[in-house]
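does this look right to u?? flavin-adenine dinucleotide version
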Amino acid sequence: MEFNPVRQNDIHYLASLVRPDQLSTGDSILDLHAKDQSYHPARRPEVVIWPHNRAEVSGILQYANSHRIPVTCWGMGTSVEGNPIPLYGGIVLDFSRMARILEIREADFQADVEPGVVYQDLNNKLRHMGLFFPPDPGARATIGGMLANNASGIRTVRYGSSRANVLRLTAVLANGEIIETGTRASKTSSGYDLINLFVGSEGTLGILVEATVRLRGLPETISAVIATFPDVEAAATAVSEMKRFGVDPASLELLSTECVEVINREKDLGLSLTPMLFIEFHEAGKAQVREMTNMAREICEDAGCYEFMAGIDREDRDKFLKARYELAEMIMRKHVGRTHTVIDVAVPVSAYPDMISLAREESRKAGVPGYTFGHAGDGNLHMIFMIGTEDRKEWSAVEHVNERLVRKALEAGGTATGEHGTGIGKRKFMKAEHGNSLGWMKKLKNLFDPNGILNPGKIFPGNI
Ligand SMILES: Cc1cc2nc3c(=O)[nH]c(=O)nc-3n(C[C@H](O)[C@H](O)[C@H](O)COP(=O)(O)OP(=O)(O)OC[C@H]3O[C@@H](n4cnc5c(N)ncnc54)[C@H](O)[C@@H]3O)c2cc1C
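got this back:
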């Protein structure tokens, strides 16, 4: 890819489009926008701009496009596949100052937001209206970054990923043109679905400047269960059976013993040191919760469950969820000085037990500290490996595990990345996953962004 560097005259022009405090070439600012939460090496942009509105984004893109300068968006930089790393330098657009909640329409269960809104902040505002925006990646993430990665979280099993929770988008294309796609109706069969094209495109097709998101009512009754099992395979079997028999939880999370050990170590929750499922029900009333809980209990017991602890009170549930959200950070704190990589395969839920078995076997063989957990209800398996930074042997052992699990997931009809996006790390699996569809994706990319300035180096492997 041939791009031009950002020169002094470019900075002068770009500075004329925004106020002085909206642009920086300072070293520390460039460093802060050089690396996400992944192991991929840092790459500094040449300038960071904080746009305030869509007109500024449009002006910047018109200029960048005609001068072949790369443009990469930045939400909070919490990605774990290198998604916002500006691989070719250029301009980073940081959306933290386009973070207004523009309108909440309670009666329609919708909100119009700017891309820099952090989803937890939106939910804090919605809570007293009895509403919430369900996708919840856990890290402090922006709605722009979540839509661009099609992020999910622990409640996706019930409410869907970011993709299922957006109705309308406004995007600025590479040439500066502003388009609006989607409607405020809860459904439509009008024309091609450009929303689904932009969601998950990691800022490679256009830049999101506004979204209408779908809200849900806070459930009347929330109830949680922790079920412990002799091994992760038994827990995974219970997950697959619950889905088969129509148990409809709002969360269905799996934790292996080593994850429970990490949580106990930091949070002192006194959890039994066995693999476990955390199951949460969101229902209209106690009778429905009872019915779901009884079905889950029967299935878990059939799968060999040791203990089925139902009706966990709110305080304990909140403590557990907080620990679950912080799990990745706790694992990293346990292995200071090592670096990490995260596996993120997803498979049809019936293939989950086999996937888990293979993951455990490969992890044992690798001989590197590894932690297995996942959004089990979605068939999404995560493993975090903590690797000696300079240890080539450990890197190649973990790379082998990743390859094995991705191949197995693809054979089962699954995906190399359930929720973290392709970024840099998953590009090499794109051909195997998408076959000749990948060529059509590339044609779409060339159509929307003929000069390839938008987040270059992502999604597509080098040879396409
Ligand atoms: C501890 C931890 C736990 C996590 N858990 C989960 C999880 O459970 N589920 C999950 O899905 N993810 C998870 N993640 C990953 C990450 O939080 C999500 O992918 C999140 O959506 C990234 O949002 P962000 O605001 O940080 O975006 P960034 O990382 O800044 O950017 C993400 C992508 O979006 C693009 N982008 C940003 N803004 C725009 C815009 N306005 N227009 C177009 N493109 C844009 C960027 O260029 C980049 O490609 C986790 C991360 C961490 C560190």
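The first strand starts at residue 23 and ends at 24. idk if thats expected tbh
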